[in-house]
């Protein structure tokens, strides 16, 4: 699904990302972790074609990402940003419906009736009772659910998420990641997600990329990446790595 070949980004004399080589397989949840300033969000912008690299190429489905038109790319690639939706003057339902924009003609019409799809998404994300509420009237967690509904309405094959659990309580974090995991299984979705929480990354990601100072430190399963010496070198603190009592994946204590 994604192939990254010798990717580099320089801004002035500063190298933001350097010598990145990795692949994301179709149908997996691929996590990106690393300290603040390691280049995680910038990498996502390069993968989605929002920024152009100084050197190297990002291939999506075998083609350079910048060879796609933005509207064509939007029919199968969706991006969920870090922050919740701003309190703009739209209802929750209207925001979810915005995800259909790439499929509409110049009059804002589609060939097929998408009302059943929108209703299904509102029901799945427990937004039915909120659908007529304005964004200014709902909580941050509810806004993030509406934002997820918008990208679900887009029906992508590839989903990129930039720290989607930031500012959410632990219950909402788990709920959001569980929805994404279920969606992946139902539709063979490929997911690239930037996460700060290493425990969430270990629980939900099939493979993880660890970035430090703009370079790849390790790519692999949670067991391969979540090693005490590796995490101490990258994050500068000594962690204790234990096994999750149910899932068996690494979990971090500080």
Automatic annotation (TrEMBL):
Family annotation (NCBIfam families): PRK13548.1
Entry keywords, A to Z: ATP-binding, Nucleotide-binding, Translocase, Transport
Gene Ontology molecular function, alphabetical: ATP binding
Record-given protein name: Heme ABC transporter ATP-binding protein
PANTHER family: HEMIN IMPORT ATP-BINDING PROTEIN HMUV
PROSITE patterns on file: ABC_TRANSPORTER_1, ABC_TRANSPORTER_2
Native species: Marinicrinis lubricantis
InterPro entries in the record: AAA+_ATPase, ABC_transporter-like_ATP-bd, ABC_transporter-like_CS, P-loop_NTPase
Domain of life: Bacteria
Annotated ABC transporter domain residues: 2-238
CDD domains per UniProt: ABC_Iron-Siderophores_B12_Hemin (cd03214)
